[in-house]
Amino acid sequence: MFITPAYAQAAGAGDTNSMLMSLLPFALIFVIMYFLILRPQQKKVKDHADLVKNIRRGDTVVTSGGLVGKVTKVVDDDQIEFEISDGVRVRQMRQMISGVRAKGEPAKESKDSKEAAKDDAASK
């Protein structure tokens, strides 16, 4: 026999340690992926679900297809009805709503319109 019992025992313990060290980078990659990709995505899904759940009559909605309209009727938990033009009503699945503007929320002004308003006020 060329291998002593002490050497064989040390080799067995080293295999477990080296196996653990070879799996450590994979565990670190998984943890980093969780915090950079999975966790923010879960938060985004939760925020969208809250947004869709709180749609009320009178809200202005933007669909994922780009249509903008005013909610006229909340049909049920899955559908809403909104008006995109005078007398033109569309039913839409709630999950396909990408944005909601509340009744009283004003449209954002551009810099040009703000500067024009300041110029008008200064000239008077």
Automatic annotation (TrEMBL):
Bilayer topology annotation: Single-pass membrane protein
Predominant cellular place of this UniProt entry's protein: membrane
TM stretches of this protein: 20-38
GO biological process annotation, one example: protein transport
Keyword Transmembrane helix: yes
Keywords: Cell membrane, Membrane, Protein transport, Translocation, Transmembrane, Transmembrane helix, Transport
Ranges where the record places region Disordered: 99-124
Homology family: Belongs to the YajC family.
PANTHER family, per database record: SEC TRANSLOCON ACCESSORY COMPLEX SUBUNIT YAJC (PTHR33909)
Name of the protein in question: Sec translocon accessory complex subunit YajC
